[in-house]
User: Fold this.
Amino acid sequence: MKKTKQQDVSSAKVYPGLLRRLGAWLYDLLVVAAILMLAGGVATALVATLLHFGVISLGPYEDASAYMSQHPVVSVIYSIYLAVVIAGFFAFFWCRGGQTLGMRAWKLRVQNKDGSNLRLTQALIRMATSAFGLGNLWAPFNKEKQSLQDLMANSEMIVLPKPN
Assistant:
């Protein structure tokens, strides 16, 4: 078996501009909205099941939705649950293949400088410092077009080459 010399990928890296990043972000926003709807449905079904078996009572709340959004304890738990769902979405895709669905559509990949996938801690740092996507506004002012979250997580976002 003949070994072929691997091309030096560091010199071939192309970094995305702001519009490409925002396009992927918008696409992912739509996917996350759909996932949050499903997560909300699961939570509502859980509350309905607990109500059916008499484990909980709605008390002064008119329905399960009001219970989950207005109860002083349940609303905090519900908000944390939805935040974990969002974080899980991004962490899963960034750590497994370096691409969310929006990034795949826009031919983007987030990775370490050596091309390896992000670690979970890097993904969490990237999420925490992204400021809900506003960290991308830093990209036009950086030499390698890296966003604030990329700099903080010691990662990079590249444009994938077109397949041959």
